[in-house]
Structures are given as structure tokens and as C-alpha cells.
Amino acid sequence: MRLAAFALTAKAYELAKTFQRSLDNPMTVYVSAKVAPPTVAAETGAGIKTFAKLEEAVAETFTAYDGLVFIMAAGIVVRTIAPLLQDKLQDPAVVVFDERGQHGISLLSGHIGGANVLTQQLCQAVGASPVITTATDVNQCQAPDALAAKLCLRPWPKVRIRTLNSAVLEGQEVCWRIDKTLPHSVFYKRQLEQAGQTAELCVTSQCLQFCAEEKDRTWAVILSEPNLPALPELPQNVLCLTPRRLIAGVGCRRGTPAALVMGALDMACRMIGRDRSFIDALASTVVKRHEAGILFAADSLARPVHFYDHAQLQAMIARYQLEESDFVKENIGIGNVCEAAAYCCVGEAGGRLALRKTKFEKVTVALVWEK
């Protein structure tokens, strides 16, 4: 999860830097030029940036980051982000803190965007009180869309999220069905059962077939996107969920053995609680299009590998405001390979960073979930 924090005062700036130091996730701190200390120029290489107008800075970064943390009055935040909002499946997580770090408010995209979890993490880091207002959390209920976010599943249709959450609040149990032909159906079943859910594996043709006594229940069904029914054919009490693609952006030194590339992919996936079989595609720069280690890894995984030119990578660096390495840029002509390539691969759908660019032996890997 890539994060940005916004500060309007000196106290807020210090709190933002505390967040930056406390989290494993990469965070860029944006501080108003009016209050930025003289030392801020020396800190720009450490993820510190200044802005002249908050509205302009937020407009430029709203879709570039997975989560935005504002250290200021909630009213300012609401007025600033209101023109930028799309929907709960696309908007970033938005969290608001007071400048003394006493309270953290999960303001937007609490479940799917991860704002509730982010709020709790930030509050724990500074000893603040989390303010979570989503009804299912307040009533200590397990929301299906929160589970979907944890499992990296895409809910459809969006309107059914409210239907199922309302049912949960009324005390109804959500029953889960999983298409057993999905590559990781057993993983989903195990994760759901660990979360206290009832889940069963079904053949594809039975996933959306319900007998008389089942039609009154509330259902969440995990299946592949090609098997989604037409909306008019979907019962009113059913929410469908489809697996998101996981893209591995890869960079490596010239002549890196395939074993090191595969090992790096293994370790990167383990860091996000998955294994390399979850990878749907590999991505890199055209400079590496003949790199045997990357080609062998893609072949071994039976996954496609996509190579992008400098213009395409630079467009993603600008769109997502990615950090660039002067050393890499000097050597191959572009300052960010693995993250930029992964974002190129997800395309206009956009992506959410699962693992920032991480260095292994002679290999760098970044993992991005397609939105």
C-alpha cells in the first residue's frame, strides 16, 4: 500500500514524519511550503515534498496513492476531496488525524480501500484513539466486502455490497460458495473458515444454483470473471467476487540466473502471504527482453511476461509519482523498473501496491494487485 500524508502545520508535519518512520508501507509526506522548515530541502530525497496549495496537491495525487492521510480538520479534508470522489471500488483510503495525534478517523473506503485497517495501524503507532464508523465494524460483524479486501477479491455488483452488509447487521449469516475450478479455491475456503465463515466448494455450474431452502439465505460466491452472470439473472441476495490479478514487476542484473529470479519471486510472494502460483503475469523493461532468467521464470510459471519501453514506464512514474533511482537511470535510462512495469501491466484499471520494490540477490521485485 503506497501512502501519502498531508500536513498544513509544523506540528502536523512532525506527526506525519512519525507515521513515515513507523510504517512498513512507503509513505510520502507533503507539507505546506508556508510552514516547511529550512531543513526540508535536504529531506526531499527521504520522501518529503512541499506544496503551495492543498487542493492542487491532492488533485495531483488522489489516484496516485492507495491511501491518503490528512493531518488537519476533517472539514478541510471533506471539501478538498469531494470533487475527486468516484466510487468505493476505486477511491483510495482516506484517514484524518488531528495535529496532536489524539484521534484518527477512517473517513473513506473503510473496507475495500483499507482505511479502517490503516487507521488502526496509524493509531497504534502513536497511541491515538481510532474512530471507525462503518456499521458492521461498530457492531463487531464480519463484513463480506472487508473479507473481499483481505482476500484481494473484486466485488460485483457494487449495489449488492450494501445488501449483504445490511443482512449481516440484521443477524443473518452469509454463506460462501467457491468455484472449485479456480486455481486457489482451497486457499479461499481455508481463509474464510479461519474468519469464522461457512464456505463450500462447488463445480462451476452449481455456484449460482440454489434449491428452495437456500434461496432465502444470503450468499457470497467466488468465481472467475468469465463465469459472472448477466445482472438481471443474478438473485437479489447474491454478491459475486472475482480474483484480482497479481502482477510481478521484475528487474535484475544482466545475466542473473533463473534460480535467483525464481527465488526472489518466491520470497516476494511470501511477504504478502501468498506463493508464486498467485502471480498472473510478469512485467519488466524492454532492456531486459532477452534476459534468460526472467524468460525462464515466466516459462516455468506458465505466465506471460510483458516488456515496456521507456516512454510507457515514464508515464507510470509520473502517474503514480514513483521514486526513481539515479543509479538505475544512469545504467538503463529509466529510474524505476519493477513498480512502473507492474503498473503498466494493470493498465487503465489501475493497481494497488502489495509489495514495494524490494531488493533480493541481483533481483528487484514489486507486486501490484489489479483494482
From TrEMBL:
Residues 57-137 form the Cobalamin synthesis G N-terminal domain. It comes from the Bacteria. SUPFAM superfamilies: CbiG N-terminal domain-like (SSF159672), CobE/GbiG C-terminal domain-like (SSF159664). One of its GO terms (biological process) is cobalamin biosynthetic process. Residues 246-367 form the CobE/GbiG C-terminal domain. PANTHER family: COBALT-PRECORRIN-5A HYDROLASE (PTHR37477). This is Cobalamin biosynthesis protein CbiG.
